[in-house]
Amino acid sequence: MSQVKLFWDPQGFALDALGDHQFLGATDGDTPAISVAIRMLSIDTPEVHYPGNQKPSKQDANLKQLAEWIQQGKAPISAGLAAHLHPKLATGTAGSLQETQGNRATEHFKNLLDEKLKRPDGSKRKLFVWTGDEKFDQYGRLLAYIAPNYSDAERARLSRKERATFNLLMIEAGWAASLIIYPSIPGYPDLVLFQETGQAAFDAPRGAWANPLALAGYEFRMCVKLFDVTDKLVKGQTVSRAEREGWIERYCADMTTREIFFPQDYFRVKPYNRLFIWSKDVTDAVSKLNLVPAE
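RESULT FIELD:
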C-alpha cells in the first residue's frame, strides 16, 4: 500500500501536448533535445498545403462552384460577406492563386532567413524566440515571434524596426496578412508597428496585396470549409447549426476604433486593423479592451 499522504486529482487539467517530434540527442541524463515546428504568431501567409497535404490548386473547381452557390443564395453567408468574397471565388483560379502566392511567400521567407541570420563576418546568428500567452497550437507547433539573435551592442544601435521580428518582416513584404488573435496581442509599440507596416504594404500594394482578387490565407481556409457545408446543404443532408455556422468562428475588432464586429462582418475592418477574437474570449476581450458594438 502506498505511503503517499497527498491526494491531487486535477480534473480537466492537461499539459500542452507536443505530439511526435524527432529526437536530436541528449546533453545529459535529463536534457533530451527534440525538433519543434514553430507557428509564427500574429501573421498568416497564403497556403501551400490545404486542406491536409492537398495542394490549394485542387480547390479551384470547388471554389468556383461555391461562387455559383453564393450567387444562387444557397450558401449560409451574409449578403455583405458574399459580395466581398464572390469576385475572388468566381475566377475559377482562387486555389491556384493561393498556391502560387504561398510558394512566393515561402521563397521570400527563406531569403529573409539567409539575409538576416548572416553576420557581417559570414557566420550564422542563432534565432531568438518569444512565445505567446498560448504556447502551442492544436498541431503541437510552438506559437512564437522569431527574430535574429542580435548582440547587445547591435541592439543598442538598431531601432525597434531595424531589429524587427521575421513576423513583422513578412507583413512588411506583403507576403503575410496580419492575424492577431486575442489574447496573444503584441505590446503597444509592436502593435503599432504591425498596424503601420501592414497598412503600408496594403496601400503600396506589395506581395499578395498586389492582386485584389487574392484571398488571405484565413479566407481561403474559411471558404474551403464553407464549400463543404454548402455541398451538404445542396445535397439535402442534415447540417447542424454548429456546423452551419462553424466555418467562420472568430469575431473581429477594429484596433483603431475599438468596434467589435460579428464573424461574418470582419470584412468591414481594413485587413491591417483586424484583431480577431474567439467566441469564448469575447466577454473577456470586451471588458479588458473596452470594445464597443459596431453599428
